[in-house]
From TrEMBL:
Organism in which the protein naturally occurs: Actinomadura logoneensis
Family: Belongs to the IlvD/Edd family.
UniProt keyword Lyase, yes or no: yes
Sequence ranges of Low complexity compositional bias: 1-28
PANTHER family hit by this protein: HYPOTHETICAL DIHYDROXY-ACID DEHYDRATASE (EUROFUNG)-RELATED, HYPOTHETICAL DIHYDROXYACID DEHYDRATASE (EUROFUNG)-RELATED
Keywords of the record: 2Fe-2S, Amino-acid biosynthesis, Branched-chain amino acid biosynthesis, Iron, Iron-sulfur, Lyase, Metal-binding
UniProt-recorded name of the protein: Dihydroxy-acid/6-phosphogluconate dehydratase N-terminal domain-containing protein
GO terms for biological process, alphabetical: branched-chain amino acid biosynthetic process
Stretch list, region Disordered: 1-29
GO MF assignments: 2 iron, 2 sulfur cluster binding; hydro-lyase activity; metal ion binding
Domain Dihydroxy-acid/6-phosphogluconate dehydratase N-terminal intervals: 66-258
Lineage summary: Bacteria, Bacillati, Actinomycetota, Actinomycetes, Streptosporangiales
Keyword Signal found: no
Pfam families: ILVD_EDD_N (PF00920)
Length: 262
């Protein structure tokens, strides 16, 4: 629960420091880097110091007067589904700049379905809370949420609703299918099936090793209608992702254009 917002963007005793400042002393809407000023007891000093440090990143006064669009990046070496995320980040930044905004990327937790123990579901709400708090605590007029792997998208959508900042979800997109001995392979429908054949003695060690190399051949989420694809379609159906972008492959130009037009 947050308390009443003060003039410098902080909240009352039960609130969160750094909450979004929406209007100045004259009632004009505050936007961009002047939102949610850090509490130093002097709003003017907070603005001065914030702009001084942002200048060290090469931004000039014109840049810092633009609306800020945050970009939540869930890229990670652990999350192979998000392997194409760096290119997607750049495409979103390009789109924001073309629209006259200032893109600022920030990292969040990444939830690799295959590499988290005991299960990624254990961390979904933690990602939702982290993303919500970062969106509220950092100055941004809108946010683009980059996700994809199973629990990432629902966590980000939960965060977006709670943060109450204009948001759009752009998913990583599905990987391309593989092939083994003329059979089209889909992760992870064929993961279980092929492993069952191996356990039954139908596939030897060399054959299952070949299958393993052919199951997930590109970056992107599982291309079958599993959790990741379902959540991508749900986000689009809810109007929280750009229309027609849920199924564009991760390795395609369509996926990058989805980021630029978001």
């Amino acid at each position: 629960m947050t308390g009443p917002t003060s003039a410098n963007g902080t909240t009352g005793a039960h609130g969160t420091t750094g909450a979004t400042e929406t209007s100045g002393a004259d009632g004009a809407r505050v936007q961009g880097v002047d939102r949610g000023l850090t509490s130093y007891g002097d709003p003017g000093f907070s603005r001065f110091l914030r702009r001084a440090f942002l200048a060290s990143a090469g931004f000039d006064a014109d840049d810092l007067d633009r609306p800020v669009v945050g970009i939540a990046d869930t890229g990670s070496d652990y999350t192979t589904c998000h392997r194409e995320m760096p290119g997607l980040v750049e495409s979103v930044k390009r789109g924001v700049l073309e629209a006259g905004g200032l893109p600022l990327v920030f990292p969040t937790m990444s939830l690799p379905e295959i590499l988290l123990s005991p299960t990624s579901m254990m961390f979904r709400n933690l990602l939702a809370m982290e993303t919500e708090e970062l969106v509220k605590a950092q100055p941004m007029d809108a946010v683009v949420l980059l996700g994809g792997c199973d629990k990432t998208v629902p966590a980000q959508l939960m965060a977006a609703v709670s943060a109450d900042v204009p948001a759009v979800e752009v998913v990583a997109g599905p990987m391309l299918t593989g092939s083994w001995r003329g059979q089209r392979l889909g992760a992870c429908t064929d993961c279980r099936g092929m492993w069952a054949r191996h356990r039954a003695g139908e596939l030897d060690e060399a054959e299952i090793a070949d299958v393993r190399s052919a199951l997930a051949t590109t970056g992107g989420t599982c291309m079958v209608m599993g959790t990741a694809s379902t959540m991508a379609c749900v986000a689009e159906a809810l109007g929280l992702s750009p229309a027609g972008t849920a199924t564009a492959p991760a390795a395609s130009g369509d996926r990058l254009r989805a980021g630029t037009t978001a």
